[in-house]
Specification:
The chain is an alpha/beta fold. The protein has two domains: 24-290, Aldehyde Dehydrogenase, Chain A, domain 1, CATH 3.40.605.10; 295-486, Aldehyde Dehydrogenase, Chain A, domain 2. It is built from 15 helices and 23 strands. It has helices at 31-34, 80-99, 102-118, 120-131, 135-156, 194-206, 219-232, 248-257, 270-280, 305-317, 334-348, 369-384, 415-418, 434-441, 457-466; strands at 20-22, 46-48, 51-53, 60-64, 71-76, 163-164, 172-179, 182-186, 209-213, 239-241, 261-267, 286-290, 295-299, 327-333, 388-391, 405-408, 425-431, 446-447, 449-453, 471-474, 489-490, 493-494, 506-513. Strands 15-16-17-14-13-19-20 form a seven-stranded mixed β-sheet, sandwiched between helices. Strands 10-9-8-11-12-22 form a six-stranded mixed β-sheet, sandwiched between helices. Strands 1-4-5 form a three-stranded antiparallel β-sheet, with no helix packed on it. Strand 2 (46-48) and strand 3 form a beta hairpin. The N and C termini lie far apart (81 Å). Bound molecules: succinic acid (SIN). Succinic acid binds at residues 190-191, 267, 290, 323-325, 480, 486. Residues 52-510 form the Aldehyde dehydrogenase domain. Keywords: Oxidoreductase.
C-alpha cells in the first residue's frame, strides 16, 4: 500500500511544482509509461561521484505527466547531506578534470552531442512526457539543447588569453583563462534539457566540475543527459545531480553558500534569483542569473502585418506561453490594431490543445494548477477592467489545459502589464505614438527580451537602442540560439549564457613577467 501523497509549498520556487512527495520510493519507473526505444535512459536515482544513488531518507518525489496527470516515476528527495556529498565529489574531481586539455573536453562534449542526436526521438519524447510541450517542441528542445554542447565544445579550444604591451622595459604582461572551479547549477522545468546544457556545456568546456539541481517537475531529462555524459566519457564526480523538492531551501542554500562552490548559475524567477544572489554574496561568488521577463512585442503601422502575426504566435504561444522570453504585452499601433487583432484571433482559434504526444496537438498543457490559476487571474483582472475576450479565456475544467486566449483593449492598469503571465494569454494594447510605446514597454522592473515590427530603418535603430532589455528581436519573434549571449538587464538577471558564456565559468589571471633583459 502506498502512503497518501503530501503537498509542500516551496519557499525557493514560486514556479512550484505539481508534484507529490511520498515516504516510499516507487519500485521503478514503468517502461510502458515512457515508451522509449532505449529505456536505460530513464534513471530514477540521483547521481553523485559516478554512482546512481537514492536519498539517505529513502524519500522520493513523484513526477507527473501534466497532460494526463499520470505518474511517470519517482526520483530521490535529497537534502543537505547529499548536497554536501555532491559538492565534495565535484571538488575531488576538479584537479584532474581542470587539467585535461581543451581538446579532450571538446572531444567529450562532441561525443555527448552525437549521443543526443542518436537518441533524439527518445529525448524529445521524454521532454514532452514530463513537461507537456508538443513532441515537435520536445524534439526542437533536444536539438536546441544539443547545440549548446556543440557550441561550447568549439568554444573550449578558443579560451585565449592575451598579451598586453607594457609601458615599462623588459616587462611582458599576459593573461590566461582558468576554470573557476566547482559550480552550482539550478534549472527550471520549462526547458528540462536546454537550460542544463546551456550551463553545464559551458562549465564542462571551461574545465569546471558541477553539482546540478534539476527542477522536481522535470528531473528525468536531466538524468538522461547525465547518463549520456557518462557514456561519452565524462569522469566520475565531474557532474553530480541532486534531486529535491521539499528540501529545496536547504539544498539551494548549501549550493550557494558552500565555500567549495565558486559559481552559481540559475534560471528561474526574479524573486528566487534575488534570494540566491543574496546567499552567494556571503562568499562573493560569481553568479549568472537568468530571471523573469515581461517582454513587450510592438507592432508599428509600417510593419508587415502577416509577418507580425506569425511572429506573435511563435513568440507568445511557444511552449504554451511558458518561456521567459515569450511576449507578455502586445502593443499594436492604432491604425493597424483591428486588422492585427482579428488576424491573430483567427489563427489562435485554430489551435488544438491536448496531449503533446498526439500529432494533431498544437499546444500542450500548463505545468501545474498554480500556472493555470495565474493565467485565469490575469484574464479575469483584464476583463474586469474592460478588456474583451476575442478567443479563449478559460481553462478546460479538471485538466492542466488553458484555451489559448487573445484579449483586446487591455487597459494600462491590468496585471498583465506588470507581471509575467507565463501562459497562453495574448494581451493586446493599443498605442498611438512611438514615444508612448517606448515608455510603456520600458515601464517595468525587468528587461529580458523585447520585440518589435517595423520596416523603417531609422525607427528600427531608434527602437532597438531605446528598449530597456538584454535582447531585442526586430522583425522576428524567435531569438534563441546557442551562438548568442542570452540574458537580461534590470531585474531580469546578471550574466550571459550561450555565445561567449564560457567566460562566466573562467577566471582571467594576469601574469606579469619582469627582468626579461
Ligand atoms: C527561458 O525561458 O528561460 C529560456 C528560453 C529560451 O532559451 O528560448
Amino acid at each position: 500500500m502506498r502512503l497518501p501523497p503530501l503537498h509542500f509549498a516551496s519557499p525557493l520556487r514560486p514556479r512550484a511544482p505539481h508534484i507529490t512527495f511520498q515516504f516510499r520510493r516507487m519500485a521503478s519507473a514503468q517502461a510502458s509509461v515512457f515508451g522509449l526505444k532505449d529505456f536505460s535512459l530513464i534513471k530514477t536515482q540521483a547521481f553523485i561521484d559516478g554512482k546512481w544513488v537514492d536519498a539517505k531518507s529513502g524519500q522520493t518525489i513523484t513526477v507527473i505527466n501534466p497532460a494526463t496527470q499520470e505518474e511517470l516515476g519517482t526520483v530521490p528527495e535529497m537534502g543537505l547531506a547529499e548536497t554536501k556529498e555532491a559538492i565534495d565529489a565535484a571538488a575531488k574531481a576538479l584537479p584532474a578534470w581542470s587539467k585535461t586539455t581543451a581538446k579532450h573536453r571538446h572531444d567529450i562534449l562532441m561525443k555527448m552531442f552525437a549521443l543526443m542526436q542518436e537518441h533524439h526521438d527518445d529525448l524529445g519524447r521524454l521532454i514532452t512526457l514530463e513537461n507537456g510541450k508538443t513532441l515537435a517542441e520536445g524534439k526542437g528542445e533536444n536539438a536546441y539543447s544539443a547545440s549548446f554542447l556543440e557550441w561550447f565544445a568549439e568554444e573550449a579550444v578558443r579560451t585565449y588569453g592575451e598579451h598586453i604591451p607594457s609601458p615599462f622595459p623588459n616587462v611582458r604582461n599576459v593573461t590566461i583563462k582558468q576554470p573557476i572551479g566547482v559550480v552550482s547549477i539550478m534549472t527550471p522545468w520549462n526547458f528540462p534539457s536546454a537550460m542544463i546544457t546551456r550551463k553545464l556545456g559551458a562549465a564542462l568546456a571551461a574545465g569546471c566540475t558541477a553539482v546540478v539541481k534539476p527542477p522536481p517537475e522535470t528531473p528525468f531529462s536531466c538524468l538522461a543527459l547525465v547518463e549520456l555524459a557518462r557514456r561519452a566519457g565524462v569522469p566520475d564526480g565531474v557532474i553530480n545531480v541532486v534531486t529535491t523538492f521539499k528540501n529545496v531551501s536547504e539544498v539551494g542554500k548549501e549550493m550557494c553558500e558552500s565555500k567549495i562552490v565558486k559559481k552559481v548559475s540559475f534560471t528561474g524567477s526574479t524573486p528566487v534569483a534575488k534570494l540566491l544572489a543574496g546567499m552567494a554574496a556571503s562568499t562573493l561568488k560569481k553568479v549568472s542569473l537568468e530571471a523573469g521577463g515581461n517582454a513587450p512585442f510592438i507592432v508599428f503601422d509600417d510593419a508587415d502585418i502577416d509577418e507580425a502575426v506569425a511572429a506573435a504566435i511563435i513568440c507568445k504561444f511557444r511552449s504554451t506561453g511558458q518561456t521567459c522570453v515569450c511576449a507578455n504585452r502586445i502593443y499594436v499601433q492604432s491604425s493597424v490594431y483591428a486588422e492585427f487583432a482579428s488576424r491573430l484571433a483567427e489563427k489562435v482559434a485554430t489551435f488544438k490543445v491536448g496531449n503533446g504526444l498526439d500529432e494533431s496537438t498544437t499546444h500542450g498543457p500548463l505545468i501545474h494548477e498554480r500556472a493555470l490559476e495565474k493565467v485565469q487571474a490575469h484574464v479575469d483582472d483584464a476583463v474586469a477592467l474592460g478588456a474583451q475576450v476575442l478567443v479563449g479565456g478559460t481553462a478546460i475544467p479538471g485538466t492542466s489545459f488553458f484555451h489559448p486566449t487573445v484579449l483586446c483593449d487591455v487597459p494600462a492598469g491590468a496585471r498583465v502589464n506588470s507581471e509575467e503571465t507565463f501562459g497562453p494569454l495574448a494581451a493586446l494594447i493599443k498605442f498611438e505614438t512611438e514615444d508612448e510605446v517606448i515608455k510603456l514597454a520600458n515601464s517595468t522592473d525587468v528587461g529580458l527580451a523585447g520585440y518589435f515590427f517595423s520596416r523603417d530603418v531609422g525607427r528600427v535603430w531608434r527602437v532597438a537602442e531605446k528598449l530597456e532589455v538584454g535582447m531585442v528581436g526586430c522583425n522576428t519573434g524567435l531569438i534563441s540560439q546557442a551562438v548568442i549571449g542570452f540574458g537580461g538587464i534590470k531585474e531580469s538577471g546578471l550574466g550571459r549564457e550561450g555565445g561567449h558564456g564560457i567566460e562566466e565559468y573562467m577566471n582571467t589571471k594576469l601574469i606579469v613577467f619582469g627582468g626579461l633583459n
